[in-house]
Specification:
The chain has 192 residues and is α/β, with parallel strands linked by helices. It has 2 domains: 31 residues; 155 residues, Rossmann fold (3-Layer(aba) Sandwich), CATH 3.40.50. The chain is 46% helix and 16% strand. It is built from 7 helices and 6 strands. A 6-stranded parallel β-sheet has the order 2-1-3-4-5-6, sandwiched between helices. Helix 4 packs parallel to helix 5. The radius of gyration is 20 Å and the shape is globular. It starts with a helix and ends with a helix.
Length: 192
């Protein structure tokens, strides 16, 4: 059987296009850093959710450091950044900061983590009560830039997290409460 030159060129072009998609998919997968210890756990919104997250990380035996107001300089030697998102007016008042300050800190942390190849995990453990306008500003800034999302099952009544996850192809884990973090943490750090 003999293949004509135009058909051979068409076949070769199709193979080249398919191969470029495979390479692009492989490169995209390599662009996402794999979560591994050590982890920096910080709060975005100054609620107590980050404190609860760090307790779960401690119980899981994962090497970490915790600072509810961590700055970029604390990313040294960190492989994964956990951002526990949820605004608390009392927390803002106690810390002497505003939502504007917290949004700026979040932006600095996200930019530095990206430039250093640090995996970003956004967690929302506050449920429905931490889904006010202030929390939503933090969620809308951080969640689309995350490599993983972990939320409490009552955190997404409006579908915001599911939409962000689908639009940005971000894995989304949904759990009952912060004490159920053990399994997602084990899956996240499997083989680390």
């Amino acid at each position: 059987m003999r293949i004509s030159a135009p058909l051979l060129r068409l076949f070769s072009a199709a193979v080249a296009v398919a191969f470029s998609f495979v390479l692009a998919g492989h490169a995209a997968a390599q662009d996402k850093p794999k979560p591994s210890p050590p982890v920096l756990v910080t709060s975005l919104g100054q609620s107590l959710d980050a404190f609860q997250v760090q307790l779960a990380v401690r119980r899981a035996g994962i090497k970490f450091k915790y600072d509810p107001r961590a700055e970029v300089d604390q990313l040294a030697d960190v492989k994964t950044l956990f951002l526990a998102v949820g605004a608390s007016l009392k927390g803002f008042g106690d810390a002497g900061i505003t939502i504007k300050d917290e949004l700026a800190r979040a932006g600095h942390l996200l930019d530095a983590a990206k430039s250093r190849g640090i995996a970003i995990v956004v967690l929302h453990m506050g449920g429905e009560e931490r889904r006010d306008a202030l929390s939503n500003q933090l969620i809308e800034l951080t969640a689309p830039r995350a490599h993983r999302l972990i939320i409490r099952d009552d955190s997404d009544a409006d579908g915001l997290f599911a939409k962000i996850a689908a639009d940005n192809k971000i894995p989304l884990a949904v759990i009952d409460n912060v004490t159920s973090l053990k399994l997602p943490l084990q899956e996240l750090f499997a083989g680390s």
